Amino acid sequence: MKKIAVFTSGGDAPGMNAAVRSVVRTALYNNLEIFGIYRGYSGMIRGEIEQLHSKSVSNIIQEGGTILKSARSEQFRTNEGRKMAFDQLTKHGVEGIVAIGGDGTFTGANIFFEEYGIPTIGIPGTIDNDLYGTDFTIGYDTAVNTALEAIDKIRDTADSHDRAFFIEVMGRNSGYIATSCGIGGGAEITIIPETKTSIEGIASLITKGKKSKRSYIIVVAEGDPEGSAWEIAQKVKVLAPNMKHRVTTLGHIQRGGRPTAMDRLLASQMGMGAVEALIEGKQNMMAGVINGELKYTPLSEAIKKAKPINPNLIRLGEILGGATK
Ligand code: F6P
């Protein structure tokens, strides 16, 4: 293998730049030529491919976003789109790919590998932490820290005004960000898709709560089947009409900002792991980190297998939030 390419795709995540830097520097260390594909699969189809050098990735480890840009490509879902992408890679002589992204990115990579056989290694880059085969995905830790900073601030005003705040965090269909934010932010209630939500329970906590307690932090994972934070607040209000409340959706602020030390380290480790895997002849795998060590999981498993939230963390959130036995 002489030439490989790297791209970022799907929702960006803080730490993706650290991963790109690690991929580039590890490739060069091993005397490989390394190409950057811009804007994910869309750029692959359009041939937005450029050779990268050590300097191309200078001064980016601390930056959020991704220097390679990102996109979600509808065209890559089609046979024609994938054929165009393959032609572009062939034109540039690319013999191996490092795909940095989440489950959508890996689903595409898995199909592409099965059709065209170009060895591919995935690096889990998503704030959602919803991929099997790694303890943490790149960007999750930063996103949780960003959300916590906001929740701390909201608590100040919630407390001053004796209000209940319904705070929606990201996570798509997973409650990882919400669970960590609920514990770390001292939430009274954390609402996640992994557990059944009781609107009655929330209303009763607020109406029958201790007299001394008048402000509440309710963290809501965006993917909860009961609806968005706004919808859940409306439902609770029907049962607790005197509730004074506000709703805050933290949104894309969770996707930006400088990556934490943990995300930089994780991304750097995975970047090296991905390139070394290609050199060793691994293909169609994801480079994850479990208990601090690099581990490889077939892409098909990483996207299909569930990664349940540790039930003890859910229980901890409930206990610390003031639940009764
Ligand atoms: O997968 C990352 C993520 O930020 C999810 O948490 C969220 O549901 C989604 O992407 C938002 O996507 P978009 O940036 O396309 O609005």
List keywords for this structure.
binds 6-O-phosphono-beta-D-fructofuranose, seven-stranded mixed sheet, 325 residues, alpha/beta, Rossmann fold, 42% helix, 2 domains
Structure description:
With 325 residues, the protein is of the alpha/beta class. It folds into 2 domains: 3-139 and 259-304, Rossmann fold, CATH 3.40.50.450; 141-255, Phosphofructokinase domain (Rossmann fold), CATH 3.40.50.460. Helix content is 42%, strand content 18%. The chain is built from 11 helices and 11 strands. The protein has helices at residues 16-29, 40-46, 79-91, 103-116, 140-161, 176-184, 199-208, 229-239, 261-280, 299-304, 311-320; strands at 3-8, 33-37, 49-52, 96-101, 120-124, 164-169, 189-191, 216-221, 245-249, 285-290, 293-298. A 7-stranded mixed β-sheet has the order 3-2-1-4-5-10-11, with helices on both faces. The longest helix is centred in the middle third of the chain and has 22 residues, at 140-161. 49% of the residues are buried. The model has no long low-confidence stretch (mean pLDDT 97). The protein binds 6-O-phosphono-beta-D-fructofuranose. 6-O-phosphono-beta-D-fructofuranose binds next to loops.
What portion of the residues fall into strands of 2 or more residues? 15-25%
Tell me about the biggest sheet?
7 strands, mixed
Specify the CATH class of the largest domain: Alpha Beta
| Unique bound compounds | 6-O-phosphono-beta-D-fructofuranose
First-last Cα distance: 60 Å
Structural class determined from secondary elements: alpha/beta
Number of domains: 2
Question: Which segments are poorly predicted (pLDDT under 50) over 5 or more consecutive residues?
Answer: none
Widest sheet, order of strands: 3-2-1-4-5-10-11
Q: In CATH terms, what is the architecture of the largest domain?
A: 3-Layer(aba) Sandwich
Q: Kindly report the oligomeric state of this protein.
A: single chain
Assign the CATH topology of the largest domain: Rossmann fold
